[in-house]
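Table S2 (continued). Query chain:
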Amino acid sequence: MKINEVGRSMIEMLGVLAISGILGVQGIAVLGATLEKYRMDQSVVQISELIDSVYVYARQWRIKTDERTTLVPYLKAVGRIPDGMKAEDNDTVLKTSLGNYARVYINGSGYYRQTMLTINGSKSWEANIQLYSEKNSIHYCGQILLAVQKVYQESPKSFCYIYLRNQPGGGRTANLRDKSYNFNNLNLSEIYDMCRDFITQKRGFFIQLCFNN
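Corresponding output:
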């Protein structure tokens, strides 16, 4: 009498578990990338609004100071903190939905005062932004530069410089206000190529904007 075997061998079970594990890891990776993309898009909107606000109010702030002074309280006072951004560290930094940070402050004194906006990866000064993938980093960099370009096209003289950097304390720096970059006329593909060129070996990037008062 022949008995039918309906069970699975140990080797078959291990194979099923291995495949499930691989699929699970891939699923987590896809989910992580998707969530980051969602938060990244939210953050781009927030930073775009912040750039517009700093551009509008830079000439209106008349703050007497001989030191670096945060402008986050002044943005709060005029109701121009973008939705979803949170002020931290005694109103010295703004945290985006993506988890990176922006600083808005007055630098210098007298006739040499300038309004600064930095977009960094952490609360530290000049910290790189490094995302889940190089593709996401390039996209995020490109979208922020598009927001900057929109204001720059309207009023180039409002900027004293537009720095794109890829390494704190060194590395490469591009002042996009320099005529050699022709930032005013760069199209989306060219902006993405510039970001791709800067984001090498997963160094990431950070952006510093200087507005004339």
